[in-house]
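Hey L., structure's done. Input below.
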Amino acid sequence: MQLRYNYRAYPDAAQRRALASAFGCARVVWNDCLRDRREAHAAGLPYVKSAELSRLRIKGRRQGRRVGVPRYKSKKDSRQSIRLNANAFSLQDDGTVYVAKVGNLKAKWSRRLPAAPTSVTVTKDSSGRYFLSFVVDTEPDVLPRLETDAGLDLGLSAFAVLSDGSRIDSPRFLRRAEKKLKRLQRELSRKVKGSKNRAKARIKVARQHAKVADRRRDFHHKASTQIIRDNQAVYVEDLAVSGLGRTRLAKSVHDAGWSAFVGMLEYKAVKHGRTFAKVDRLFPSSQVCSACGFRDGPKPLHVREWTCGECGTLHDRDHNASRNVLFEGRRIVAAGRAETPNACGAPVRRARVPAQRVEAGSHRKGQTTPAGIPGLQAREHVNLR
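Output:
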């Protein structure tokens, strides 16, 4: 499986200029190739062959949601990046990373890479931070087998309620930072467009948003790792996040970051030999009594407790839903519709797990990782905390 490790980089002034030039070159090549394909398509000519690009077209032949056609890149984009193969970079003994035509970049390391990286993506985000994202091919790190499993009910009042009754409180990172964000955005709106003061104010806003995103990601990693370590099987409801993001609860839904959290659970389950399954979003987890199975009908969101009309059991809405998700997940696994480990801990049907793309921004054999780097402090993209 592929993992991505993300490390903060600190280029000097000359290296920042060289990276800006590299970003521009990559952007020009991308736009030229995309223009050729669009022109060929408009003229009715055969599509310019590119196996990777054609799989991402709007024909919908890839897994997951349908995607639109590729878009042109601009130097005004909030994020700039360039991806290099193993021939264009190398890891040095002094802890720096040599990038062709840029030089030795200082990096802040937190852990060694488990294997030689196959590629690196150099990224500059909207707040002016630079990152090095390495893609590494590794074998699953199977954890000792457990007898416990868990169903999760994701929500807003509590971030997650487990089937054993434990709760994970919702930290609401964006809500807590709103006061400062509003002040910074007011200051930005008062600056003259095109001025240096406006550019400085924009960076302040971007840095505050980056802090919120970093805190949320850190919370997701810690919570997902703990759940995977404590349970042999994890079941979660497949929520329609894109639909909920268009309701009056949109800000709270996006602040929770359910999709990113579920994605972490999924790839960590594969990495550690755990079972993971999604329960269909149409499954009535909040309507069925987890004690007797009686379906008591839909209930508005303000109803947090209800009594079963058949057996008289008093239910907490979220705990009852998580128990129903657990039972349905077990049924899905028993029917053979989920990724399950065999007796040796390896998945029976090994699904390809690509490197995660939310942090580093890379769409996907180099030298070995330098051993004994002093002050090894960086951040693994798929950080298993």
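The first helix runs from residue 13 to 42. The CA atoms of residues 132 and 360 lie 8 Å apart.

-- N.
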